[in-house]
Amino acid sequence: MDRQEVCFLVLLDLSSAFDTIDHKTIIDVLEYQFGVTDRALEWIKSYLLNRKQRVDLDNNFSQDCDVKYGVPQGDCEDNSESTLAILEDCISDVRTWLLSHKLMFKDSKTEFLVIGTPQQLLKINIESVNVGRVQIKPVDSVRNLGSWFDKHMSMSLVNKIEDLEIVIKNNNADMVCITETWLSANIAASVVDISGYTIVRKDRVMHKRGGDV
Predict the structure, then answer these.
(1) Which residues 6+ apart lie within 8 Å of 24 measured at CB?
(2) Taking 60 as the threshold, does the pLDDT of residue 114 lie above it?
(3) Digit-coded pLDDT (tens) for 6-49
(4) Cα separation, 137 vs 186, whole angstroms
(5) What is the pLDDT of residues 176-196, one digit of tens each?
């Protein structure tokens, strides 16, 4: 795009991908083709392997069957402490690798975002993550490569503000009302500012969708 060239985005849909994927295949691909090893690989193996399932009909249970295909889905319990320990170990490994290759790692500049539905986020309690000697608190949204990501991976107005400004000015609009903006208090007014217009916001409250300007 910087060279005035277009980019292509192709989204391929796999039939029942989450139900048919072979555990051994995905682990082999991650290890031998993508180079995922050590703690990261063991973490993935612990999630996929040695799972069993059974049928419950009025408290009458079938025999356990090995689950060799598909990705487990559904709700999970709060394993915040063990999850946090694994996360911090992974960050430490990445940090060590970067420093060993003479790349400067700014601990205090790290941003930490926990992503999930409002219901999922209520099940965990992570106040901070240790990065080097710095404690990083989770935020509601982060900006990366020009795009904003929030903790619900919603389609925020922030990601569309440039397109919105073009539409408003092309139509010489005096007033525009927008719902479902997904704006929250931690997003500064300057981020959604449009020259020549006054922004009146009603941000969404915690754990709720919506918001409007």
Answers:
(1) 68
(2) yes
(3) 667 666 666 666 677 888 888 999 999 999 988 888 888 888 88
(4) 13
(5) 887 777 777 777 888 888 888
pTM for the model: 0.45
Query: Model confidence over 195-211: pLDDT tens digits?
Result: 888 888 888 665 555 55
171: number of Cβ within 10 Å: 9
| Cα–Cα distance measured from residue 98 to residue 163, given in angstroms and rounded to the nearest whole number | 37
Six token digits for residue 89 = 């170990």
Burial 112-137 (b: 16+ CB within 10 A, else e): bebeeeeeebeebebeebebeeeebe
CA angle 164, 115, 213 (to 5 degrees): 30
